[in-house]
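Hi U.,

Before I forget, here's the chain from the pilot set. I'm dumping it here mostly so it's searchable later in email.
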Amino acid sequence: MRLLLVDDHPVFLEGLAEALSRQADFVIAGMVTSSAEAVACCQRAQPDLVLLDLAMRSLDGLAVLKQLRQLEPSPRVLMLTSSDDAADALAALDAGANGYITKAARYDELVEAIREAAAGGRPIGEMIARRLANRDGHQPLTPRELEVLGLLAEGLTYEAIGERLGIAKRTARAHVVAIQEKFDAANNAQVVARGYERGLLR
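Structure:
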């Protein structure tokens, strides 16, 4: 898996590249510290996934994300940032990010998020997931339930959700049932509607 790392802190980039290189199937296709370099390097290196910081000195990470979304082919993008603000996460996901995780995440959580985002999932860090779910005082969804909710909103079946996340069909259905209980919803249509009402879907 080819990874492009985008962050305006060179020391952090070096450490991140060294850590991710421990994974046998991860290849660091590039490391850049500015938005202009990010777009150019992405066109040149054709990465499978871009790890993008949200706040950089030269340009806002959301603006870079939108530029990357206009490329053909458009790479998958995982936001890796220091911001644990739910509003920032929602803004990034709404702009097309394929996942959002903070720099406070454990190494194994980051590796798992990279694999999920590259495989078509929508990983959200545990801290962000809790903040998104708790914004309105509702019973919180787990990070996995938030992923399932997003895929359910896309119209995917239990089987398709299972395939996307690498879990069994019955496990996908169990997650949906759990969400229904937390949302006090009678069916999947109500689940999706309440997901939008609570700001968990955009």
